[in-house]
Amino acid sequence: MAGAGEQFEPGQWVRLPARPDWGLGQVQSVVGEKVTVNFEEAGKVVVMLGSAVLEHVE
Predict the structure, then answer these.
(1) Where are the alpha helices (DSSP H) in the chain?
(2) Domain limits of the chain?
(3) Rounded Cα–Cα distance for residues 1 and 47 (Å)
């Protein structure tokens, strides 16, 4: 079974709908369900996909 983090890869742009004030973020790394994202306004944040929803930005 594929892990939740497999839908993300470094370099992709994402947003966290629960925190729109953080702006856009670029995925830095993915380890299991931990996705490290560098957000424009919040800096580097580790997002647990079991607890939060990240959206891809085209």
Answers:
(1) none
(2) 4-52
(3) 21
* Separation CA 21–CA 33 (nearest Å): 23
Q: Are 49 and 4 in contact (CB under 8 A)?
A: yes
- Tell me which residue of 26, 21, 32 sits closest to 45, measured CA to CA: 26
Do the Cβ atoms of 25 and 8 come closer than 8 Å? no
pLDDT tens string for the chain (58 positions)? 345 667 999 999 999 999 999 999 999 999 999 999 999 999 999 999 989 999 999 8
Give the predicted TM-score (pTM) of the model.
Answer: 0.89
45-49-53 Cα angle (round to 5): 85
Six token digits for residue 28: 């830095």
